């Protein structure tokens, strides 16, 4: 019997209006009231037969006894295990069955003691329940009509009178519905007590009339039964006093709530009076959802939405249970500007295939829904203390948009007044939560040494295409676009087909800005802080979602819908990458290009992203790609070096062969020269006389020698 108190607690903690769970519980009470009405009608008819027909009094009494015995078989949703009541009625049924033959005439006594209580309960209490039910239904319908008018208000401010009337109508109808609802619930709760009274008082009056009328029935009605009836009378009085005390408490609670919760009746309360709670991991309430009815037309339906774990559920009026809308783990949510509605926000699933646009009732409700879904998207609800962790994460996000104290200390350490003092070889790298870690490499860096003051920030991916580039892309049948951030015109479309590594991630572009150096990860952390601070200051919630493709040659940002390459970063130009120390979903990398300036200095740009997965995994993937690319480059250089060595060896072998051939030719020439340099012997005759050669023979001999010398010289 503490249902009304639980409803009041629910109103003060969550909302002042009915939720679907409350309506379901209300249905149980209404079903119980219908069962009580049905049973009371049967009991009334049985007692009326006793009153009307003296001849049928015995049969009517027997029927009454039978109905009392069947009480324990009745299926009352709220009183199925009332053993005391069942046993009491069983004893009454036994007595009535024994005295059923003795009841002949009791018209006057029964009219006052038996028929009056049951008639009053039937005609006054049960009809009051039906009347309050009809009034509550009318008030609910009026409230729904007022809410629909309020939801259809235009965003223009030229008709403030209509807006005031609509808001006043919402206030009046909502207050009327709330008051009617509380009185209706009070009547339903009181009915549980009146049911006992309406059952026990007629029986008590009947028995007392029987005792007073049948003095001679003392044999049947012993002192034991009189004590039993006395105890029942005492119980009825106790129940009546308990009911009176409960009614007084409920009436006082109604008055206190009407005074304390007056602000909650306003559809769009002042945020300064009702602050936004950003640490929620569960939320429920009515939202308007947009449904497409055609190519350009849409309709808005009002449904009850609630979060259950990592799922967003909705329940239409009259449904027994809620249905799944989408999985909001690793989803993205942001406020959107609809043409015909205010306080709208959009939820996109983790794979980007499902989008839901919802409208809240007020700006406070819209911001709380966005904060709650963001907390669920980060899976904070799986922890032991989700609200405490959500508060700590939100505090970290607030600190991320405030100046970094460690960089302020470094800036002060660079002042001229401190140059004479020795510098300690230490530096602090501050994350978004304000934690400091040692970083000696940045001990003399200041904030200006990392990011130049007044550096412009780009919050969206811009891919300008000139007419000439567009014509070339069309002629080549390519869907790629060129841009000034690292994508070259001559990059082939099939460059990644031979890559060993192919990893695809979902990333949302937060912004990029030019930095002064790429010596430490503090450059990325400071860029994250400045971009998040700028987004918070300028209320920029829109983020471009892309597919980040990591290969051994480059990093690509691809449009998930058109598969068009938005940006391309050569892997050799990525000189630094890191993820946030606290918010692991944030990561960034630094791109350095040698061209772009007139003075020849390199351009260093830091890009910041938010991913659905852990940012460290993406950074590990980029690091793995660079390692694979490095080893591939080393293998290529080793192969080229080996080829050069083989060519040099072959050339050396050819030179050595030529040298050997020359030495062999010189040796042959020396042998021939030595052979012709010997003296010519004189010819002798057969008789031992010397012969003198003629001139012709001498000339022939000289010609032969000259010919051989000429041949040797040619050789």
Automatic annotation (TrEMBL):
**InterPro entries (UniProt xref):** AH/BAR_dom_sf, BAR_dom, DP13A/B, PH-like_dom_sf, PH_domain, PH_DP13A/B, PTB/PI_dom, PTB_APPL
Checking CDD domains in the record gives: BAR-PH_APPL, PTB_APPL
Q: Where is the PH domain?
A: 280-378
Recite the UniProt keywords alphabetically: Cell cycle, Cell projection, Coiled coil, Cytoplasm, Cytoplasmic vesicle, Endosome, Membrane, Nucleus, Phosphoprotein
Gene Ontology BP term (one): positive regulation of biosynthetic process
Topology of this chain in the membrane = Peripheral membrane protein
Keyword DNA-binding carried by entry = no
Q: What is its main location?
A: other
- What are the coiled-coil residue ranges? none
- Tell me what this protein is called: DCC-interacting protein 13-alpha
């Amino acid at each position: 019997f503490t249902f009304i108190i639980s409803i009041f607690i629910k109103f003060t903690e969550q909302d002042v209006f009915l939720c679907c769970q409350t309506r379901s519980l209300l249905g149980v009470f209404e079903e119980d009231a219908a069962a009580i009405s049905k049973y009371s009608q049967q009991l009334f008819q049985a007692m009326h037969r006793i009153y009307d027909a003296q001849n049928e009094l015995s049969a009517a009494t027997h029927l009454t006894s039978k109905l009392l015995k069947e009480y324990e078989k009745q299926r009352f949703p709220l009183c199925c295990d009332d053993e005391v009541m069942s046993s009491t009625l069983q004893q009454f049924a036994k007595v009535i069955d024994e005295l059923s033959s003795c009841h002949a005439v009791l018209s006057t006594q029964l009219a006052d003691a038996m028929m009056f209580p049951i008639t009053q309960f039937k005609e006054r209490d049960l009809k009051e329940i039906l009347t309050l039910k009809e009034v509550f239904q009318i008030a609910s319908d009026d409230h729904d009509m007022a809410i629909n008018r309020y939801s259809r208000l235009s965003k223009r401010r030229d008709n403030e009178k209509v807006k005031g009337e609509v808001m006043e109508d919402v206030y009046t109808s909502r207050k009327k519905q709330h008051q009617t609802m509380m009185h209706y619930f009070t009547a339903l709760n009181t009915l549980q007590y009146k049911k006992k009274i309406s059952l026990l008082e007629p029986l008590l009056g009947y028995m007392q009339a029987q005792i007073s009328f049948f003095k001679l029935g003392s044999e049947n009605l012993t002192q034991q039964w009189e004590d039993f009836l006395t105890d029942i009378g005492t119980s009825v009085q106790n129940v009546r006093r308990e009911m009176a005390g409960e009614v007084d408490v409920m009436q006082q609670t109604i008055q206190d709530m009407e005074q304390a919760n007056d602000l909650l009746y306003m559809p769009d309360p002042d945020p300064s009076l009702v602050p936004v709670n950003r640490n929620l991991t569960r939320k429920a309430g009515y939202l308007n959802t947009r449904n497409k009815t055609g190519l350009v037309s849409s309709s808005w339906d009002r449904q009850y939405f609630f979060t259950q774990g990592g799922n967003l559920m909705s329940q239409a009026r009259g449904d027994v249970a809620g249905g799944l809308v989408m999985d909001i783990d690793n989803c993205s949510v942001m406020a959107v500007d609809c043409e015909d509605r205010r306080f709208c926000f959009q939820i996109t699933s983790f794979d980007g295939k499902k989008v839901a646009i919802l409208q809240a009732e007020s700006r406070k409700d819209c911001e709380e829904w966005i904060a709650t879904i963001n907390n669920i998207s980060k899976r904070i609800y799986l922890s032991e203390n989700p609200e405490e962790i959500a508060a700590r994460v939100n505090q970290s996000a607030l600190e991320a948009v405030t100046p970094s104290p460690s960089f302020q200390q470094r800036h002060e350490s660079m002042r001229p007044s401190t140059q004479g003092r020795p510098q300690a070889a230490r530096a602090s790298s501050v994350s978004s939560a304000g934690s400091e870690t040692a970083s000696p490499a940045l001990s003399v860096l200041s904030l200006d040494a990392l990011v130049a003051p007044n550096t412009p920030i780009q919050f969206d991916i811009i891919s300008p295409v000139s007419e000439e580039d567009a014509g070339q892309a069309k002629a080549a049948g390519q869907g790629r676009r060129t841009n000034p951030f690292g994508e070259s015109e001559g990059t082939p479309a099939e460059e990644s087909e031979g890559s060993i590594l192919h990893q695809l991630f979902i990333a949302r572009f937060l912004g990029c800005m030019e930095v002064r150096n790429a010596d430490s990860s503090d450059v990325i952390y400071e860029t994250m802080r400045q971009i998040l601070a700028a987004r918070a200051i300028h209320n920029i919630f829109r983020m471009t979602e892309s597919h980040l493709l990591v290969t051994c040659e480059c990093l690509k940002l691809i449009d998930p819908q058109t598969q068009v390459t938005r940006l391309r970063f050569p892997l050799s130009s990525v000189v630094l990458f890191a993820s946030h120390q606290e918010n692991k979903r944030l990561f960034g990398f630094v791109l350095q290009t040698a061209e772009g300036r007139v003075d020849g200095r390199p351009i260093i740009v830091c890009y910041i992203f938010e991913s659905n997965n852990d940012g460290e995994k993406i950074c590990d993937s980029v690091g793995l790609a660079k390692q694979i690319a490095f080893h591939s480059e080393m293998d290529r250089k080793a192969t080229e070096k080996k080829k050069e060595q083989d060519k040099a060896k072959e050339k050396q072998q050819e030179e050595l062969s030529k040298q050997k051939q020359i030495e062999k030719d010189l040796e042959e020439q020396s042998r021939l020269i030595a052979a012709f340099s010997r003296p010519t012997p004189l010819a002798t005759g057969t008789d031992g006389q010397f012969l003198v050669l003629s001139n012709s023979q001498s000339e022939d001999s000289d010609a032969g020698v000259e010919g051989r010398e000429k041949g040797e010289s040619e050789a």
